[in-house]
Every structure is written in C-alpha cells, then in structure tokens.
Design goal:
This protein is mainly alpha-helical. The chain has a single domain (5-121), classed as Orthogonal Bundle (Ribonuclease iii, N-terminal Endonuclease Domain, Chain A). Helix content is 76%, strand content 0%. The chain has helices spanning 5-26, 32-43, 45-57, 63-74, 86-105, 108-121. The relative contact order is 0.21.
Length: 122
Amino acid sequence: MDKNILVLAYLGDSVYEVYIRKFLIDKGLNKVNNLQKEAIKYVSAKGQCELVKTLIEQNVLSKKELEIYFRGRNHKSKHHPKNTDILTYKEATGFEAIIGHLYLQGDIDRITQIINYGLEVE
C-alpha cells in the first residue's frame, strides 16, 4: 500500500489526536479547556517533533517506519502553519505519516506502543 505521504500524515494526525485525548481523559482531566491546553503539548508540531526525535534516538522505529518518516519529512511542501517553523512542521509530518501508515495496516498495537513510549518518556 503506497499511499500519498500527505494522506498518511493527514490520517495519522487525527488518529494521534484521538489517542492523546483519550489518554488525558483517562488521566482524570474532565474540563474541556484543560483538556485542550494539555492536548496541545502533545499534538502540536513541536510536541510531535520532540516525540519522533526521541523515537529515532532510542531506536524504537523499524526500518519501514523510518522510511515512511523520511518520506514525510522530506516531502516538498510550499506551506506550513504560522505558529511553527518549517523544519519542525516537516518532522511532525513524518511522525504523522508513520501513524497513518500503521493505522491503514491495522497495526493498532504498534500505534499504541509508539504513542505509549512517548508518554512514558515525558
């Protein structure tokens, strides 16, 4: 399955956000404003960039996952959000692509493993 890398990132972004929201609710946060403020720490491009760098440094990602990450990170993009620099945005796009790929493969256990690794490192 060789999907467009930005399609994988698009899907991965939403999958990751759902995981983080559930994590925060399970943690006991029950006010929407608090949930949103806390979620941004994880789901922002900066938060995703920090997580993927840790995953790479700790050799957590497989060869295939790294390949997808680099495809996402190196994808030529003409724009990025105003609140982050282009390098951080590209790193986050690579991370989201990994999650999107795993989701389409039905590998929910691996998604959970990767996300939980990041949550344990914090």
